[in-house]
Amino acid sequence: MSADQITDVEGGDGTATAAAAAETTAEVTAAATYPVAPGYRVNVRSGPGTDYSVVRALPEGTSVRIYCQMSGTRESGPYGTSNIWDNIGSGQYVSDAFIRTGSDGYVAPRC
């Protein structure tokens, strides 16, 4: 995710600009939602892997907010093979291979 333009509001050493840009980026990232792969009902698990119990399933067409990410079991899905698991709520994880984040890497802080 990137900013199109950053304007120096202080006109000085750029500290205020960097802080404002970081705050704006954090707000955008926190508010971002990512769609589940079309045609899939994705299992939500209690932890970052297939060894954890299924707590519910996301219906087709759902978008999720990713609060943090961590490594877990490797899964293959429509967006490749990944060991990244997305935390979408307390005790709720989905494989990143089924979420369209636009990246093969981390898009949220690590859990």
How would you characterize this protein structure?
It comes from Streptomyces marokkonensis. This is SH3b domain-containing protein. Pfam families: SH3_3. The chain is 15% helix and 33% strand. It has 111 residues and is α+β, with helices and mostly antiparallel strands. It folds into 2 domains: 1-31; 34-98, no CATH class. The strands form 3 sheets. A 3-stranded antiparallel beta sheet has the order 5-6-7, with no helix packed on it. A two-stranded antiparallel sheet has the order 1-4. It is globular and about 25 Å long. The two termini are 20 Å apart. 21% of the residues are buried. Mean pLDDT is 81; it is low at 1-29.
Task: List strands and helices in order, with pairings.
Layout lengths: L14 H17 L2 E2 L6 E4 L8 E5 L4 E2 L3 E10 L2 E10 L2 E4 L16
Antiparallel strand pairs: 1-4, 2-3, 5-6, 6-7
Strand order of the largest sheet: 5-6-7
Average pLDDT confidence is 81
Helicity, in percent? 10-25%
Count of helix runs: 1
- Please write the string of helix (H) and strand (E) elements: HEEEEEEE
Rg for CA atoms: 17 Å
Distance between the termini: 20 Å
Stretches with pLDDT under 50, minimum 5 residues: 1-29
- Let me know the number of strands: 7
User: How would you classify the helix and strand content by structural class?
Assistant: alpha+beta
The outline comes out as globular
